[in-house]
Amino acid sequence: xxxxxxxxxxxxxxxxxxxxxxxxxxxxxxxxxxxxxxxxxxxxxxxxxxxxxxxxxxxxxxxxxxxxxxxxxxxxxxxxxxxxxxxxxxxxxxxxxxxxxxxxxxxxxxxxxxxxxxxxxxxxxxxxxxxxxxxxxxxxxxxxxxxxxxxxxxxxxxxxxxxxxxxxxxxxxxxxxxxxxxxxxxxxxxxxxxxxxxx
Length: 199
Prior knowledge:
- By secondary structure, the protein is mostly helical.
- The chain has ten helices and no strands.
- The model is unreliable at about 1-25, about 25-50 and about 185-195 (pLDDT under 50).
């Protein structure tokens, strides 16, 4: 039996649906007390929705697969928050929302908000952009369009991909989820074979 599997409720071993429930519970923040090293990974993403085994494995394929999955995005966001670098994913998410806007008036207001919070040199959540990209994005504020944050968003994505995402893949949170998913999958397969043999 895999390490840590005995600690799971028996119902979690029945199916992938139970796995979703278990991951959702695993990511909940405890009501009291601080986090120790052992349970830090289990409580890092309190707002993440349940994910199934297939989704968890896909998170390890690319940053794109991770952040385009709702549970993956929330889990990665919590990981970045633990590293005090959540402004990168927040900026990326704001840019995604911005690109989906249709009202020209709302677009202009949103552009100013994103720029003042994440791009401006004096912004409270300044993201790590080179001076040329920061300057170009500033010029884009004169006549806003759907693509005015495109280059900056692409740069932040590459930064997360080369840095934070690699650390996420080596993190206790991700490795525990993969290991426990594998354990449950193996146990579920074993039970299915046992049922077939006794039928």
